[in-house]
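Long-time lurker, first post. I've been practising inverse folding by hand and with some scripts of my own, and I keep getting stuck on stretches where the structure tokens seem ambiguous. Below is the full token string for one chain I'm working on. Before anyone asks, I'm not after the true native sequence, just a reasonable design that respects the backbone. If someone could post their per-position residues I'd love to compare against what I wrote down in my notebook.
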């Protein structure tokens, strides 16, 4: 058996390590730096992470503090994002505080990892389009209220890297105001990340929409680093103004309705043309639009105060009472147990925290995190108990979603992802031959027991191999019969002659 470990074994070991460790290991050698930054290794590491069900994900949390006028990002624990002893275990905590002071969760640096967004929004905070495989897609402010020329960014907090996407660059008629909706998702077949942009045009009376469908539909591909226009859905699906999107089962989902939208009230609908609530979807791989049914109970509800969400890996409908004065506030959480099957919609529970429930912010392992008029609350549906973690924020800024660390974007410089992906495909056969010949300077005899000892040898061994090369060179010099001092004298003489 060979004394050295094959490259394939080293790659397999590295692909099982955490992101933070791999970022450090890029400093071991140029070879490791190149290896960890390749498209193939990043994909391999991603697939291993996706298949790992033992380690719970983080929760990415964002809120805008109106007192400090600061947008805050943090990683929280999925198991228990807001522990009951968060304040009491901190050495600087004094209880009780004066009645006029509020306990602020993020004033006590424990139980969370603070994140630093690389760019400041030109508005109060970024609008988060979605998260996929460790990538966060964001744009300035709410898309439906921004100018047509939006510029999204992709940000990977786990490797501290972000990229600005090019402008869509589509000019719209000045007589209409654009209403924009965005979605973000991943195509596992091609390994590509895509942003979908739907633009509706409406007139100055704020109710008259132009056409029967979105006037502009565009797709951005990270692989090509470019936008392109595609055909619309061919049907009139009007996405709810406050609707967020979620990506699951290869598609982006929005809550929408079909029917006559030039109305102000439920009485304006006729029996022949009632409102019909649907879930409007866009498949990232096939790039086509489809629709899914909502629960029968909500099919014909006018001004449905709900939004799409994810409970675990299941598509869900949750309360979205952004209009607190609505007489039809929703407090129920529904889940589609069998994706695509309308009959599988199941009511999980009601959120019993009283009035003024604006919306569900996110889900932890045993809790649902809700926004009650700008105050964040944690509700346990099984125990029917709620707690106040001490977070007050601008309601529309509250965001929470599961987050999985990855190396995605590590190999992206402009449109370098496209070039690298093409070159890796073209030279796969050539590289395979080279890999069989190359060995990594790690001896099994020196590896020791356990992965920790092995990785320590992996980090230190390249330096020893360089020393051996140096000693071999010195031995060769002595065998020629010339000492190093004689060589130095000859070198000086040659220098004088040249001068």
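-- Answer (accepted) --
I ran through it position by position. Result:
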């Amino acid at each position: 058996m060979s004394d050295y470990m094959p490259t394939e074994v080293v790659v397999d070991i590295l692909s099982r390590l955490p992101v933070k460790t791999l970022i450090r290991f890029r400093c071991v050698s140029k070879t490791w730096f190149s290896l960890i930054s390749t498209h193939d290794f990043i994909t391999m590491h991603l697939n291993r992470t996706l298949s790992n069900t033992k380690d719970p994900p983080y929760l990415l949390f964002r809120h805008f503090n109106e007192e400090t006028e600061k947008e805050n990002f943090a990683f929280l624990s999925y198991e228990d994002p807001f522990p009951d002893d968060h304040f009491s275990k901190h050495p600087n905590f004094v209880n009780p505080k004066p009645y006029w002071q509020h306990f602020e969760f993020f004033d006590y640096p424990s139980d969370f990892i603070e994140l630093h967004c690389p760019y400041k929004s030109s508005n109060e905070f970024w609008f988060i389009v979605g998260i996929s495989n460790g990538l966060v897609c964001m744009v300035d402010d709410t898309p439906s209220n921004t100018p047509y020329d939006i510029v999204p960014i992709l940000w990977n907090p786990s490797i501290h890297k972000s990229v600005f996407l090019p402008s869509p660059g589509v000019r719209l008629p000045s007589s209409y105001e654009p209403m924009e909706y965005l979605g973000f998702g991943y195509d596992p077949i091609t390994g590509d990340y895509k942003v979908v942009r739907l633009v509706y045009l409406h007139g100055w009376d704020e109710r008259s929409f132009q056409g029967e469908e979105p006037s502009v539909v565009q797709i951005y591909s990270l692989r090509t680093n470019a936008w392109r226009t595609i055909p619309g859905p061919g049907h009139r699906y009007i996405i709810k103004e406050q609707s967020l999107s979620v990506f699951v089962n290869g598609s982006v989902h929005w809550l929408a309705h079909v029917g006559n939208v030039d109305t102000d009230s439920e009485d304006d609908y006729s029996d022949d043309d009632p409102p019909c609530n649907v879930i409007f979807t866009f498949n990232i791989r096939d790039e086509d639009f489809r629709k899914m049914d909502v629960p029968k109970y909500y099919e014909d509800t006018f001004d449905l105060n709900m939004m799409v969400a994810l409970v675990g890996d299941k598509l869900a409908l949750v309360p979205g009472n952004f209009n607190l004065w609505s007489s039809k506030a929703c407090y129920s959480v529904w889940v589609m147990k069998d994706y695509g099957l309308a009959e599988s919609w199941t009511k999980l529970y009601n959120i019993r925290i009283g009035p003024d429930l604006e919306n569900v912010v996110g889900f932890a392992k045993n809790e649902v995190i809700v926004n009650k008029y700008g105050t964040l609350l944690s509700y346990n549906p099984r125990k029917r108990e709620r707690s106040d973690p001490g977070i007050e924020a601008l309601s529309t800024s509250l965001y929470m979603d599961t987050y999985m660390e990855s190396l995605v974007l590590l190999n992206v410089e402009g449109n370098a992802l496209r070039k690298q992906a093409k070159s890796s495909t073209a030279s796969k056969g050539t590289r395979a031959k080279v890999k069989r010949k190359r060995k990594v300077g790690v001896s099994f005899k020196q590896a020791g027991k356990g992965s920790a000892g092995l990785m320590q040898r992996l980090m230190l061994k390249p330096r020893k191999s360089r020393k051996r090369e140096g000693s071999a060179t010195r031995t060769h010099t002595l065998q020629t019969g010339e000492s190093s001092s004689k060589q130095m004298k000859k070198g000086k003489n040659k220098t004088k002659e040249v001068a």
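A couple of notes from the structure itself: The first helix runs from residue 7 to 14. DSSP finds nine helices and 27 strands in the chain. Happy to go over any region you disagree with.
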